[in-house]
């Protein structure tokens, strides 16, 4: 059996090291988390999507008592961006989790959100930079493909 090694490079920045654009995106994700509907988990997640024209679209998790009928913040924001601005590419996404009013450690997108992020990259033919923002630092991934290297794609269904 042959083995392949898959590696991931993650940038780690203290929140004070974020660029002004990344700081604005993080702040938008924090605002979005404050509007999340999370009455069951009390784990509010906000996502902010930066489009290539400078527009920022926000989304947050929306829970439902009939699990899994809710939706994650990342997908809410990405689907809203795709529906409202279908011709404008996504540049980056910031994600923040808040519990009991406190920003949590950096949070990573779930598998379904990773697949949607990857589809967004492929839709526009450009990488989507992902900022997984925590209280004190942010993990920075240069492309959604880095988070889902063995992904399902259009070639799988042809």
Short description:
With about 160 residues, this protein is an alpha+beta fold. About 30% of the residues lie in helices and about 25% in strands.
Please give a structural write-up.
The chain is α+β, with helices and mostly antiparallel strands. The protein has helices at 20-33, 73-84, 111-124, 144-147, 154-157, and strands at residues 11-14, 43-51, 56-60, 90-99, 102-103, 129-133, 137-141. Strands 1, 2, 3, 4, 5, 6 and 7 form a seven-stranded mixed β-sheet that branches. The model has no long low-confidence stretch (mean pLDDT 95).
What characteristics describe this protein?
7 strands, 158 residues, single chain, alpha+beta, 5 helices, seven-stranded mixed β-sheet
Through-space gap between termini: 28 Å
Radius of gyration: 16 Å
Name the shape in a single word.
globular
- Number of E-state strands: 7
Structural class by sheet pairing and helices: alpha+beta
Element pattern in H and E = EHEEHEEHEEHH
Mean pLDDT: 95
Major pleated sheet:
7 strands, mixed
Proportion of strand residues:
25-35%
**Percentage of residues in helical conformation:** 25-40%
**Which residues sit in consecutive blocks of at least 5 with pLDDT less than 50?**
none
How many helical stretches? Answer: 5
